[in-house]
Amino acid sequence: MKDIRELKARLATLFAEQYFAVLATRSTDRIHTTLVAFAAADDLKTLFVCTPRATRKYSNLKLNPSVSLLVHNSANMATDIRQAMAVTISGDAAEVPENRLEGARRVYLGKQPHMSDFVRSPNTAIIEVAVRRYDVVAHFQDVTILEIREDRIVAP
Length: 156
Known about the structure:
Layout: H1 4-17, E1 20-26, E2 31-40, E3 46-52, H2 56-63, E4 66-72, H3 80-83, E5 85-95, H4 101-111, H5 116-120, E6 124-138, E7 142-147, E8 152-154
Domain Pyridoxamine 5'-phosphate oxidase N-terminal: 8-134
Protein name: Pyridoxamine 5'-phosphate oxidase N-terminal domain-containing protein
Pfam family, one: PNPOx_N
């Protein structure tokens, strides 16, 4: 995939179809992964996840904002080798500030409306991930890297 418009369209479709991602955070000495519900902004430069503040992932994000997420559409079938797409997302995470909270909530609940009570809880933090790059793997070994802030595809 070397056409940037086609790549962004495929990412937008994948993110619209998949409700969950694996989020990797880091403490001082360990990497922690967890399944999270997510939503992407229309420009693909920001992803949103929510978490209670009393969690390991929240503590890790405060300590080290560099995160990675994995979104994929595999079905755990042999045909996934040729049909599945997986995206590793690299970025920096921070709690959404109060002045942008409603906009972030709107994006998140637009995709995850069933999580309204959780998202609106005073104990829940909405986290925005400022995406730096997407590493996209399709058809088993077709790798494309998109640096989203520079809006360019780079060689793997």
